[in-house]
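Posting this for the archive.
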Amino acid sequence: MKKGIHILLLSTVLFSQCGKPAPTGSGQHDPEDEAKIQLTAYSEKYELFAEADPLVKGKACSLLAHFTNLADFKPLLAGKIGLTLAVAGQTVRAEQAQPVRPGIYRFKLVPDTAGKGRLTITIAAAAVDVIVIDDLAVHETPEAAHQAQPQAPENAQAVTFTKENSWKVEFATARPQLGAFGEVIKSVARIQSAQGDEVIVSAKADGVVRFSGEHVLEGKSVTAGQGLFAIAGGGLADNNMAVRYAEARNNYQRAKTDHDRIKDLAKDRIVSEKELLKARNEYDNAKAAFDNLDRNFSAGSQVVTAPFAGFIKQVFVQNGQFVNAGQPIVTVAQNRKLVLRADVRQKHAPVLAAIVSATIRTLHDDKTYTLEQLNGRILSYGQSVNEDNFLIPISVQVENMGGLLPGGFVEIHFKTAPRSTALSVPNAAILEEQGNYFVFVQIHPEQFEKREVRLGASDGLRTEVISGIAATERVVSKGAIWVKLAQGSGELDAHSGHVH
C-alpha cells in the first residue's frame, strides 16, 4: 500500500427518508418513498456521510456525499473524489473533481450486475485516503430493493443537526476515551509570587521619601539597578541624614589623620604599640561607617535602586512621606514563577503522595492549562492541617505564561496516579438540566440522541462516565449546545440545506 493512503471498511445503514411510513398495497410504491442508504465512515483525516438511492441493476443511483475535515470539522473545500463499485468482477466508476458546494459531492452510479458489491471511495486532497465499503447490496429490480429495506426504528430523543449547520459553528464529535483515570481532587488556589521572584525594597535610613521621576507606579517596569527613590534627611531637626553623613566624614578624616600621625611616631618608638592599635581600630571603624554612607548617600540623600529587572507590584508610601529605617517602600516582582496555594479536605490525605499532575482553569478568562503546559511541579503538601480552617495545604509552582495574576484565584484539579480504567468524555460534551447530565450520542452525522449519563470524577478537561454510553459510540465533543438549540427549534427536515 502506498504511503499516505488509509483504508477503512464499514457497513451500510438503512433509514426511512424523512420519517415517511413504508408504502402498503399490492407492490406499488412511489420512488420518493424509498428509504435512503446512509453511509458513515471515518478515515484518519476525513469524515464521510453519504445518502444514496437503493442500488438497482441497470438503474441510475444518486449518491450525495458530505466530506468533513476531522482536524477542525469544517467542510472539504477542494479535492477530487472517485467512486468505484465492483460487483461480481464488473466495475462502474464515477468521479467529481470539485464539490458542488463546500464539502458536498454528488455522483451517479449505474450498476451492471446484481449481488454483493464493494464501493471504493478515493479522496485525493492534501493526502490520499481510501474508504472501502463491503457487502453493499445491488438488487435485481426496484421491487426487490423495496422489499429488502428495513423500517427505521423511531427514536423520540433523536435530534436533527445537518452537516451544513454543523460546518457553520464550532462543532466536533469523538469516541469516549477508555483508559486509566486516577482520582481527581478539586480545589481553588490563590496565586502568589514564588520565593526569590519578589522583593520588598525598604528604607535604609530615616528620612523623607523622594520618588525618582513621576512614574513610580504599580505595574511600571524597572531595570536592575534603576533608581526608585531617595531618602533625604536634610530638613529634619533630629536624625538628619545629611548631618550623619557630614559627621561620619569628619570622624573618618580625623581618625585617618590620627592614625597616620601615630603610625609615624610608632616607627621611632615614641608611642606604644597599644596606642597604635587603638588608633588603627578607630580609623577602621570610622572608615567603615563613612564608606557605608558614602555608597548609599549622594547629593544630600540616600538613593535606593531596584534589585533586579521586573515591575513595581505595590507602593506602600506616598512621595514626601517620612519613613523609618527598615520600613517597606515598594515591592518589585518578576512574575516569572508563581506559587499556587490550595487547601484540600482531610479525606484526601491518603492520596496526596500520589498526585502526579494538575489541571488549572483561570476564572477571569475561563482558559484551562495542564501542569505540564506551565512547566509546573508539586512543591509540597501539608503533613498536618491548618489550625484556622482544618484543611491540608498544597503548593504548586508554575511558570507564568501571561494569563495568571498574582493575588487572584484559579480552579485547580489535582490528578493522582491512575489506578483504574474508566470511560471519559470532554467536559464540553456534557450538558446539565435540572441536576441531570446528558450527552448527545451520534446516530449518524446528522442525527443525535440525547442520552442521560451518570458521571464520576473530573480532571478539569475530561469527566468519567460511569453509565449511559459505550466506548464504541461517538458523542458530540464540541458544540453540544448547538444540537440542544436545534432540538428546541423543532426542526424535522433531516435534509434541510442538502443539494439533491
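The chain has four domains: 6-154, 172-181+421-489, 184-195+335-416, 234-299. The mean pLDDT is 82.
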